[in-house]
Structures are given as C-alpha cells and as structure tokens.
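User: I'm writing a tutorial on reading structure tokens. Could you give me a worked example: one chain, its sequence, then its tokens, then a sentence or two explaining what the tokens reveal?
Assistant: Sure. Here is the example chain.
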Amino acid sequence: MTAVEASLGLHWRRPELSALSGRHGTRRGSRLPARAGAVSGLAGMAWPDLLLAGLAVFLFVCFAIMVAWRAFLLIIACLPQKPVLPSGDGAVAPVYTVLVALYREASAVPGLARAMCALDWPQDRLDLIILLESDDDETRQAVARQDWPRGTRVLVLPDGRPRTKPRALNYGLQYARGSLLVIYDAEDRPDPAQLRAAHDAFRTSDTRLACVQAPLVAYNHSESWLAGQWALEYRIQFGLLMPAQARLGLPLLLGGTSNHFRTDVLRRLHGWDAWNVTEDADLGVRLGREGYRADMIAPPTREEAPETLGVWTAQRSRWLKGFLQSWQVMMRRPGQALAELGIPRFFALQFGLAGTLLAAFVHAPVIFGIVFVALALGPLTLSPPGILLLVASLAVNLIAALAAPGPRDSSRLLLALSQPAYWPLQTLAGIRALYSATMAPHFWAKTPHGLTASSG
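And here are its predicted structure tokens:
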C-alpha cells in the first residue's frame, strides 16, 4: 500500500485540498470563473468602452496594491532582527532525515554525494534516503559508485502515477526515521551548517513552527543574462520578501528544496500533494491553513540556475501552473480558507498566488503596448496616476534588486536596470502554463540539471 499511499494519501483523506480532486470543490467556487467570464463577455458586447474602462481601473488598482505590498515587505525586511543563538556543545542532536529524489540525473550525483558527506551532523544521527524511479538504471549505477554518509538508504519506487517529485517524497516520508526532515535536489550544494541552523530554529521556538526554509542562491549566475536574472530574482525572494513575510507570521510559498520540517507535522498533513506540480507552495498554504508557521534560516543552498530560454520557460511554466492549481484549491471554498487563515494571511496568499499569475499574463501586453504606442503614435501620454504607478513600480523593483543580499557590483546594477526586459518572458511562460493546465494538468515538466559550465 505504500506506493498507492504516496500517490493518493492526501486525496483520500482531504480531497478538498488535493489538486486531483476538482470535483470536490463547491459548485459555486468551481463555476465562479466561468460565470465571471460569461458576464464580462456579455458586458463587452453591450458596452465595450465601459468594459475596457472597468478593466483598466481593475488592473490599476490591483497593481497599485501589489506595488504597495512589495514596498511594505521591503521595509519590514530592512528592520533589525534578533538572531537565533546557536546550540551549545551539549545539545542533543536528533535523528535528521534527508530526502533526495532523483530522476535521470546521473551527472549530478558525484557533486551531490560530496555535499551530503559535508553536512555538519553526527553520522549516526543522519538518515539519508535516496529516492529513485524504477526505470532509471543510469542514475542508480551513478549512486552506487559514490561514497555516501554511513547508513544511507536507496529506495526504488514501484512504478506508478503520477511520476512526480512529491510522489517520490511521500514514498520516502513513510520510511523516514528522523524527527526532523529536509528536502534536497540533485544539484543542491547546501551549506554544511544548514541542519544545525534549522535544529536551532526548531529548538528555540514553539511547536507551531513546522518548517524553516533556507535561502536558495545560484552558483552559475554569471553564465548568461537569463541565469543572472533568475539569480537576482531568487536573492530578492529568499533574501528580502520571504524573511519579511515570516517576520509578519504570514504563510510562505516554500521553495522546492531546502525545506526543513518537523516530521510529525508532515505526516499529520498527509505529506505533499502528488498531483500538484508546485507541491512546495501548496504545502506552505496548507501549513498556514492548519495554524502552523514557517520561518527562514541563514545558511544557504547553492543550486543551478537555468541558462537558456527553453529550460527557463519549462521550469517557470510549471511553477505558474502549480500556482494556478494551488490558488484553485484554496478558492474552492474561499469562506473556509478565509476562516482558517484569517484576513491578513488570506490576502497575503492572494498576493503571492493570484498576484503572481496576474502579473505574468499582464507584463508582456503592457510593456509591448507601451513600446508600440510610443513607436506608432509618438511620445506616450499617461495620466498622473499612471505615471505615479509606473515610477513607483520601477523604483520599488530597483530598490529590491540593489538591496538584496549578495555581491553589489556593476553586474548587479546592469541586471537591475535590465529587469524590464526580463518581465515579458513571464507571459511566455504563463501562456505555456495555461495550455499545460488545460491539456495535461498533472504533467511534471522536469528541469534538466548538470548543464552549466560552472562547477557546483
């Protein structure tokens, strides 16, 4: 039953929270987008000018709120914070489970093995589990050739669907021995002190702290402009925005790796949703709905940024599709979600999920529209509120890019100034995400690793 449990555990026990369970949403919630679209279509045929004006006002208000929200988080992020004191020599180290799900990543295995051996944790208290798919002989052989921490276990998943990372993690969770648990990916190079920092955070907090997230930074940011933008985006997200949200007690849309959990809480929540392609963000929402909180720790994990447009688009479209899945799940019963989360946490998740999706689909039309009008009709004339919003948006993003942790040099400045050229790519990924969500909602577009010339 373990393989079936890994696929369907959440769906069986909490169908309303699973991305597989669309039919379990309330009819009102599931039909709301269709009804809104129908009403908008009819209004557009009857009063097209009024519809366009209403849409413009709606988008203006949404983006004004999002810019103000981002600016508020930046202010919170810059406030001084009391550091977590490290544990003393006499602190008892609990058993710590490390789950690593691999699929067709043989080239990344040697670096991964070195990183796992470098973890600063007692070998007899480390429970490393390597999770492999049954048809991946090449990665299995690569794993067998490496030296791993003592007691490492290799588990081969029975064939099954969906073939996703969260299904593999759920399978490994059933065999976890540790009271604490962390997720790493094939290309990850975690700071050796990361497990101790997470343990200190849990040790000095109450049991409502269910997860701590380590920052993710790219080790190949200089390989291409696209990799540099991805790396800068991550420095803003994990260095400023997420720490601010954690300080405010808001739910975190977790990253896909370097999440440290209390294992008992994970099991209580039935693990990850095997059918959600951003199982990390979904789990962050469910933690918030159950009254738990997440926090950040300082020791980072170095990982590989996508260097080409094809790899970047595939990865980003999966993220956007997963955000859409997570938002749809939350909005099946919006009243229940609001009651569980409370008003601030509910709207923070709206900004994180719906706001990200809205921005992705609007970036390219707005930017290309401005350029087209300027070239075809001459200098663009904006209303004073429009000018104010545009300047505020550019200023907030520039400040975030320059204030984010990491080296502040000329390359950082060039990346910050060229961000507007990066944003329209989100629309390309958004269109692909929408198509995939319609045609193959649970398909996992895997990001290839080991492609960079930089050494991890």
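What the tokens reveal: The longest strand covers residues 126-133. Residues 23-30 have pLDDT under 50 and may be disordered.
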